[in-house]
Structures
1.
Amino acid sequence: MTFLAIDIGNTRLKWAMYEAPHPGAALLAQGAEFLEQIERLAEGPWSSLPAPTMMLGCAVASEAARKRVHEQIDQMLGWDIAAQWVVPSAAEAGVRNGYDQPLRLGADRWVAMIGARKRILQRGTARPLVVVMVGTAVTVDALDEHGQFLGGLILPGHGIMLHALETGTAGLHVPTGAVTDFPTNTSDALTSGGTYAIAGAVERIYQHLYLRCHMEPACIMAGGAGWKMVPSMTRPFELVDNLVFEGLLVMAEQRQAQRLAALTPTAAAAQQASAGQTSPEGASLTAAVSAVSALSHFSKG
């Protein structure tokens, strides 16, 4: 059961094809395109892929970008899948949404938190968690040890900060500088200022979370520009390349299990067989569905 994960950001579309829709599944292929080049997917990198049996995507870009992806999928011969897109909800995959209006939370933030919490739980004891996404914009989100999303920050990324200063002030059109403790030129001052602004926001959320939970939070950082921040952080951080994809795998596994659980055992087994799902996980899931169905039938009798 191959699985296609798609992450549409503010500037690029990233995709990955996995052997199955569950965490730890083998990665078959991956790639990225700038949003202006989405139309290259069908005749380009997707042309040699096996047909996926499930697709789940996360998008912060416009509805037009999702529509263009749908058009690319429609062009793929043998691809008979319904494009599904994440919509933040009150709770999913062990994470509860604390936003005042859950639907207004960015889908990328929601998926990243789900992926990060799964990563922490796989190591044993649950801990509070700071999740940082560094891209065109920067988000800093906090979860307690029970998976409750407490809230977070949104601030401009490096590029937006520098652009705002260049357009709003005179004489600041300078090359990108380096991050230093005490900058002595304008280029270094701008680059260091933006970096330390982001690091300071992360540190503040870390402190708030520690005071709230009375436990040292774990810290995970992701996003295309995450590597720029790691040397300047005041706390130990784990840098994760594809955190959104990890979250999509967790959500896909849960959604697939829920869908199969709603079927009869015979239909669930047939569904898995037609998709070629013969893994131990698939066999266990079929057995679980059968047991639940049998118990339900017994109780009705």
2.
Amino acid sequence: MGLYRNNLYICTMKKMILFAAGLLVTASLSAQQPTGATFKSEAANDSVTAVNPIDTLNTEDKFTKIVLFDNHTWSYMDMGRPVINDNLYLEHWDTTAIHSYRGYPLDSIPEEVDLLLADSLHNYCPPIVGKVRSEYKFRRTREHQGIDIPLQYGDTVRAAFDGVVRFRGGGRQTGGYGNLVVLRHANGLETYYGHLSKSIVNIGELVKAGEVVGYGGSTGRSTGPHLHFETRYKGQTFDPQRLIDFETGTLRDSIITLKKHYYNIYSHYGQSDEESLTASQHITHTIKSGDTLGGLAAKYNTTIANICKLNNISRSTILSVGRRLIVR
């Protein structure tokens, strides 16, 4: 099924390029020259009264195609090279580490920052469309710092925004992520694409939103094929659903205002700013052998009922060692 989708996408894209080329030729003939005028290719001086695109060829530059016409001429076609700000994407640039901002202090990040996500020069495409199976939250004994969307083996996974490949790796190098691609974007944002069966981009490669970066799989710490997708700003994770409605594939807004209290595993899309701020200030406790709800309530000057409510548990819940509970 995944291979069928990939082949269908390739065929569709070729048809779209040919259609666009036809539109450009028509516009050139009608707008730039009088009736009966000719179109000239890049390769020949022959003049013809009508030309139709019939095929495309790749060049060394993936953002430039050669369009072949039915009169045995050809022309270059610009596919649109992404606009990347060198200063932003080179900050803390490290192609050997998954997290290049490790150790970067949260205090160095502004209380609020506006990130431009998409406009006439910056593109967007959903990495994949589907229902979020596992959200940005604390899961079992660890933080789940992204979202999981089920897919089929071999499904195409696409770049969400224009960017540059900062990291690509797999196996022991990435641990639970499995085959992983990390893209750095023009606004300082990074997106992570994990559990891929295969990645097809290279470190330092410029990619356009919608370009395939890899194929769906279940590598790393995974119980079935899905995409693990993360969003980070200067190393700080936040809920990707603040940016994208994954069920419809739509971008929620062209600009997002990131607030410092968003960089917390208890801050989620759908909360009010007051709720998010309160959630980000929670005090947590990691369960150790011998811990009880009564003991935790006394230690943190709260009640058993409040601990149960904050963690959606009951008084009879078994406290597993290593589990993290919100206590206040």
